[in-house]
Write the structure tokens for this entry.
Amino acid sequence: MKIVALAGGVGGAKLAQGLAQILPSEDLTVIVNTGDDFEHVPLYISPDLDTVCYTLAGLANPETGWGRVNETWNAIANIERLGGQTWFRVGDQDLATHIERTRRMKAGQSLSQITRDFCKAWGIHQVVIPMSDNPVRTIVETDQGELAFQEYFVHRRCEPRVKGFRFDGIESAKPEPGILNAIKEADAIVICPSNPWVSIDPILKVLSAPLVSSRHSPQIQRILGEKDGGEAKKVVAVSPIIGGQAVKGPAAKMYRELGIAPSAFAVAKHYQNLITGFVFDEVDAKFEPDIQGLNMRTLITKTLMENSDNRRRLAEDVLHFIGNQL
Ligand code: FO1
């Protein structure tokens, strides 16, 4: 079964890795959010691409989910000593990734080309594609003004109250060409349990760019939430909210600050006109009738991924759901 997975940070990377444990590598393509990307110090940093790649390569720090396992912090300790910026913690092995990516980008290489080369270097056989080679920057509109994503997420520790989001560059961001072919060939699209607002929405907005949906196959239009042009594509989302809480990150807080009670139902509504199936946790079983009322099939299972085994099990449940019930 060929799968295209849309993924942002840690949660998305974990399910992608679960899928990678089961699917032949040529049958899994992961489309990754780049809205978190930013220029930091002299470095171009692409956190979600690195989190997905490090996780697929078995190089990710298991505690934080981001950055490298067995990391050392000598460079940033010396930057601190020199009075430099250290609020964004870059470890020594991780630093190499940012230095080399920045060098290549300044030499004119595309983010997708760099990602292909880095995947080869890290022994990743799945296809990992940035949502666009054009710059997109997530801006979080808060009660303390507009903040670049990492400024909000890391520097301000998600404390400012969220009022909305903007994705600078989204109007002119074209989906990386490999994405549309992967979607056309896919049996299903899996929206991983990443933050719907700041990890998945940027990807969906790039895929919905006017130039894409106007001239592409009915399947793409179906995925882009447009009226069916033909055989609808299966699109399944996995809830990142369990029992009203985000497993990691500010998704639940964002829902609350936007006046929406955080729940699996709220996430199903978020993707309502796009998905044909929704996977959510047993603790949220009470929402099943309401979620089915949104005209989508449902799968209730354990969705917390704390280790490699339950990543694999969740991936197996999702693929079984796609194959047998959608
Ligand atoms: N998240 C933090 O909360 N604190 C950090 O110091 C931090 C450093 C960091 C370095 C490299 C990288 O790839 C990710 C890093 N993250 C850090 C996570 C990053 O903010 C991601 O955007 C989140 O994981 C959300 O996707």
